[in-house]
Write a structure and sequence with these properties.
The protein is mainly alpha-helical. 79% of the residues lie in helices and 4% in strands. It has 8 helices and 2 strands, in the order H-H-H-H-H-H-E-E-H-H. The protein has a two-stranded antiparallel ribbon. Strand 1 and strand 2 form a beta hairpin. The N terminus and C terminus are likely disordered.
């Protein structure tokens, strides 16, 4: 497999100067927007006390994960994989970038999961005690601890795989421990994809059902009120006209 990858990397075609310029402009624009927009979100929540709510704290945490991705992941992978077809940033940067990529994914997934649980409590159980600001900050600290600790094996197993004397690609390698690599991949998939997905599916499905049920109950209540109002209107009109109209209403 490594020989096949190395052969593919060596034979990867160089893109034209025009496309290189276009890609540089596009990726630079994406990075600026990502860092600038998410930075503004963080500043607004920090600067204005009334913005310091539980949902906004989770949004700030989500913004921080996007900033990590925009600064530490997008430029390196863009240059190495699209522009040069080899890793030019050295041995130390390689594991750091691979590690931070997974960290940012965990931060996003777990923050979205926490937001879904918060919305679930507010909408489905409105009389239950809500998540307080202190508890939300505690949850965010736990999210960071998990996001920083779970991908540690990547930090120790990512390195440059050389396909020539001077050129190579930054890859996660598990030489002589394929069973460990398989187990780690399964754990990562479960923890940062399936577990958050199941929690969010449960929360938002329950929220949707709860809102739909209340909506139907409200429609039924409004329909009954309209029927009563219509009957009262008919009685009022009939009292001004004749008794036969009242008899007709009573028969209906």
């Amino acid at each position: 497999m490594n020989d096949s990858i190395n052969g593919t990397l060596q034979s990867a075609p160089k893109i034209s100067t025009f496309l290189q310029t276009l890609f540089i402009m596009m990726y630079s624009f994406i990075i600026i927007i990502a860092v600038g927009g998410n930075g503004i979100v963080c500043y607004l929540v920090y600067a204005y006390k009334r913005m310091r709510t539980v949902p906004n704290y989770f949004i700030v945490n989500l913004a921080l994960s996007d900033i990590i991705m925009a600064i530490f992941c997008i430029p390196f992978t863009f240059v190495a994989n699209l522009m040069l077809n080899y890793w030019p940033f050295g041995e130390l940067v390689c594991p750091a970038v691979c590690y931070l990529q997974i960290v940012s994914v965990f931060l996003s997934a777990y923050t979205l999961m926490a937001m879904s649980v918060d919305r679930y409590i507010v909408i489905v159980h409105p009389f239950r005690k809500r998540i307080t600001t202190e508890y939300a900050l505690f949850i965010i600290v736990i999210i960071w601890i998990l996001a920083l600790s779970i991908p540690i094996p990547t930090l120790f197993n990512a390195r440059i795989e050389y396909y020539s004397n001077t050129s190579g690609q930054c890859l996660e390698t598990w030489k002589g421990n394929e069973s460990g690599r398989y187990a780690y991949s399964i754990i990562i998939m479960v923890l940062h994809y399936f577990a958050p997905m199941l929690v969010m599916m449960f929360c938002y499905t329950t929220i949707r059902y709860h809102i739909w049920l209340k909506h139907n109950q409200k429609d039924g209540h409004n329909s009954r009120r309209l029927q009563l109002a219509s009957a009262k209107q008919k009685v009022s009109i009939c009292t001004l006209e004749s008794e036969s109209c009242v008899d007709d209403i009573q028969s209906n």
